[in-house]
Amino acid sequence: MFGCQEDYRASQVPTAHSLRISLFSSSVCGCCGPLRPRYKRLVDNIFPEDPKDGLSKSDMEKLTFYAVSAPEKLDRIGAYLAERLISHAGLTGLNVVIAMEALDQLLMACHSQSIKPFVESFLHMVAKLLESGEPDLQVLGTNSFVKFANIEEATPSYHRRYDFFVSQFSAMCHSTHQDPETRTRIRVAGIKGLQGVVRKTVNDELQAIIWEPQHMDKLIPSMLFNMQESEDLDRTPSVAGQDGEENPAALAESCFRELLGRAAYGNMNNAVRPVLVHLDNHQLWDPNEFAVSCFRIIMYSIQAQHSHHVIQQVLNHLDTNNKNTPRVRAGIVQVLLETVAIAAKGSVGPTVLEVFNTLLKHLRMSVDFELGEDSRRNSSTSASSGRGKESEERIVQNAIIQTIGFFGGNLPDYQRAEVMMFVMGKVPVYGTPCHTLDTVTSGFKSKSMAAALPPPFLDPLFSISLMEDSELRQLVFEILHNIIDRHDNRAKLRGIRIIPNVAALKIKREKISKQDVAFMKKHGQQLYRHIYLGCKEEDNVHKNFELLFTTLAILTIELANEEVVIDLIRLSIALQDMVLANEENMPMLIRCGIMALVAAYLNFLSQMIANPPFCQLVSKVIELRSMEAAFLLPEHIFRDKCPLPESLDQEDRLLYFQTADMAECLAGPGYNAERLSIPYVPQVTGTHGAFHRH
């Protein structure tokens, strides 16, 4: 009885001492009922008689004050709340909501060292909610976990693990609930939960285990699965109006970006590998829009210095799939192009030649596959299926070439020259170097031709120019244009024609340097020879003659001093004489095409060197041809159904350019016109004499 009176008196006198007695008394006397700890009574009081009334705020304030004042009791409070929560979890969700709200408030209010045991109880309760299978309880548990994840703890936890939460949240991300709205809620909760795990663990050295494969293999695919579902979700009426916080695709992408942005040097491989596996498992390389989108996100989210890690991963994956279908390989290469395009703006790393080596290896393999199909097709009657296979291999080859070209195009000139020689040395396969080099050399600017066209590159390139394939010869000259045309004059010279006023083209040029003079002395004859031989190929078409004309014009602009001008005129006369002699019985169309080429070039050259007598001489021949032999001019011979003569009259000297007349025009200071009387004869240089053009 005394104890009860003492309690009564204390309750009537509101002193600090009595308040402490009231709060910290752990039990009541036996006459007042069973022994009951104070913290349990405080916890019980926050639950109202009618759960619909919600959490009792005044009693919650008392519980919070008690917990802050006596942090050593936190673990007991947490354990008892967990007991209450578990007892209600199978009954009514309202009491569960009250219990979780109380936990959240205690968690936010208490930051002492004693919070560690309380957190374990809290996480145990969250786990129970996630395991319940009830969407409302799962969402409730996730929201509490996210609040916890945003709390910065004073000291790290040495023993806490989040394996269960990674697994459970990942499973929620793949929810297949029948109701679309509920399914979306569960997936959004799962993504938010994973985002909470990432934020809680990724910067904690003690939780580096989160980057290990067993966790990344769940985290990454869960995000990608929801990103991949975006189109279907956007078409669902209940989801179309959602903002980014409630849209699984947008939220998953945000979490994916955040995770990649936090990835350190040693974690890149574990972060990228699951992406590649997911794309494989879901057959997302063909079509590859989603794959390209994923790697675009990756490249823009990671730190720039890690870009080469991603590129290396994609290259390795390409090696792994070297026997897959052409469209899958092409899809991987196109993704590689995307990564290279973004990496080229920053740091690509030391793997430049490794990238080229792998790409060229796959280019050669693709060509081998195609050639193998050709041989099988020739021995089989299923020609149509062979053509389909061939076109698919071409898709792979074009994707590789485009990637090499883009990568090479973003390298400095010295490295690009190294790559060009690397390409010529690594891919001695019919035609493939030309397509590759055309893209690598696009936009190439080199002050010295000797540096841009070293013999290890020039010799094999010219070897290809002797191939019997007219398209390959076109590519060789386009490559030369890319390298030689340092002032971007090609567009002004497009189309073989008689240009009435070359000055109107506003050709850009500079005085030829001593280095370029030396280059022409050493390699000029090699250039002339391949132009000469390229003119008389019987399968030449209009484009071949256009490119030959452009080649002669660019040589004149970029590399021609007085000596080179004389050599180019000698070359032109030799071409004209070859047509008139016709010792090789060339088709009349080719003979007339060569004559038109010579006329177009000499018209251009005479105006470029600004020699009035020479200009008048050339104009006179062209004017006479337009009246009597229009088939010897480019505007006529390259038209469809241009009538061809049965023969060319060698005796009608006025229709042709005469050496003596041109020598007379060029007589005087500057030009050694006497050299024009020496007929041009193609000189075999280097290894070309033994080259077999087939």
From TrEMBL:
One of its GO terms (cellular component) is plasma membrane. It comes from the Eukaryota. It is a lipid-anchor. Gene3D superfamilies: Leucine-rich Repeat Variant. It is found in: Cell membrane. Keywords: Cell membrane, Lipoprotein, Membrane, Palmitate. Coiled coil: none annotated. InterPro entries: ARM-like, ARM-type_fold, EFR3-like_ARM, EFR3_Homologs. Its main location: membrane. GO terms for biological process: protein localization to plasma membrane. Belongs to the EFR3 family. This is Protein EFR3 homolog A. It comes from Cyclopterus lumpus (Lumpsucker). The gene is efr3a.
